[in-house]
Amino acid sequence: MKPALPGIFVTSALAFGAVASFCAATQPAPENASPIYGVTIPEGYRDWKFIAPAQEAPPLDELRSVLGNDIAVDAYKKGTLPFPDGSILVKLAYKRSQSTEFAPATVPGAATTVQVMVKDSKKYPDSHGWGFGRFVNGKPVDIAQHETCLSCHVSNVEDHDYVFTRYAP
User: TM segments (predicted)?
Assistant: First the structure.
């Protein structure tokens, strides 16, 4: 004869797990999370490795620098596509400014945006595994601007796992 207690314990544990999963899924996104994707600015990203620079022509007229976490950097170095889950890219954008010390030089001026891409194929299946965030002064921008993130990446860089930036030699 088998005791009934193990079955009760398993049933209770499964019920508890379902409740815990439901509660986690219904937690509101942090106030500083991007609309649609819930992406936030990663802690410590300023210490991440440099991937590549970029210069945006007018009207934006920006200098940009892309940084990556260790997972993204490793994928770039190995030529791994698609990028593995856990890859995070952060683009820092600044207005171009004329150097006051050296006239021919352009230097970063005022910060314009911090843009974040997070690869999580389970969390973002409808956007090819990527979640997007765009932030001004540490605050997420409106939904319309986030909707353009995915459409631009899909229409231009599908063959590079929806990532524009290439690893700079």
Answer: none
